[in-house]
Amino acid sequence: MKILYAAIDQRVPGTIGGAVHVTAVAEGLAALGHDVHVLASPGDGPFPEYAGWEAMTPPLGLRQLRWLRAGRVIEVARRVRPDVVIERYYNFGGEGMRAARAVGALAVLEVNAPVVDHAGSPKRWLDRALLVEPMRRWRDWQCRVADVIVTPSAGIVPAWARDRAVEIEWGADTTRFRPDAQGPVPFAREAGELVVIFAGAFRRWHGAVHLVEAIRRLRARGHRDIRAVFVGDGPERENVRRAAEGLDGVVLAGAVAHERMPACLAAADVGVAPFDVEAHGPLRLGFYWSPLKVFEYMAAGLPVVAPDLDRLRGIVRHEREGLLYDARDPDGLASAIERLKDPREREALGRAARERVVREFGWDVHCRRLEAAIRHRSKTCAT
Description:
Blueprint: E1 2-12, H1 17-31, E2 35-42, E3 52-55, H2 70-80, E4 84-88, H3 95-103, E5 106-110, H4 122-129, H5 134-145, E6 148-151, E7 165-167, E8 194-200, H6 208-220, E9 226-232, H7 237-243, E10 250-254, H8 261-266, E11 270-272, H9 292-299, E12 304-307, H10 310-313, E13 322-325, H11 332-339, H12 343-360, H13 363-382
Parallel strand pairs: 1-2, 1-4, 2-3, 4-5, 5-6, 6-7, 8-9, 8-11, 9-10, 11-12, 12-13
Helix pairs in contact: 1-13, 2-3, 6-7, 6-11, 9-12
């Protein structure tokens, strides 16, 4: 198949989850033999060599103006003549869906953030104040014209569109993220030390500050041999730094290129994902994320420590691939880390995590499921 992938607000190459997702899906579909053409914003370096990449950015670099690129995306579609157009959903997007209609291609909408509004959403109040609800009507249109909606959780898609929704988790590159990955890492470790790692974009709901608090509690219990390493950057990094003032055993390594992350994770012992669902309004709809960091921890052979949430239970099974703690318990995270000082339990959970992600959550698995969903819908539309 010839596939046009519209992701113009994602900077490739990049370190954030969206950029990793676009890169992995483009690579995975190309590896399956498809002719993939990707529209994306240029990142910090050249585009990957596989597939065909074309630079296209939203006007003024603002994703809120993505829809203004519809004419240019349609021009590309008429030149490429794709069988399938995939678009990363955004409320102010729709350029890929318009291009699919213009050339008669199958329309695939990737939905990774809620289409529906959560209770108390400011956007919902604004939309109602505008009387004709333009934002709801536009995102409903995007879902209506999509032949396939690919999402980690159908609960973030309007109920009337869920018959076209296919639930597929994100994944990890299991050939690169391995327990034996080598390369330079931005932190040191002492002999006999337990290194727990947080990797992410430092947004409030990622809960990085909770790991600092857990280290403080562990120090108070007399554990001097546990180090927490934070890799990444984002709006909450400064709050994490302030919370860690005067506390030894906390390393803020800063942003690291994604190609260096396999070595960083392989150099650690435990992967921590202390999500804070109370800090993000849309999570009132449920934990809809497909957590990239968790899959990459697992691929690196790390046991995962995360809060006990419905969807996470389907990814990390308690006492099988990691430990899930009660986020309401102030000692929950610290106690889970403390338990993983036992090397036998830690290594057993890490091996099981690696085996499961290779079997169920690799990007190759994601792309095969995506391909199957597209082929199934193509056959349905043809009959």
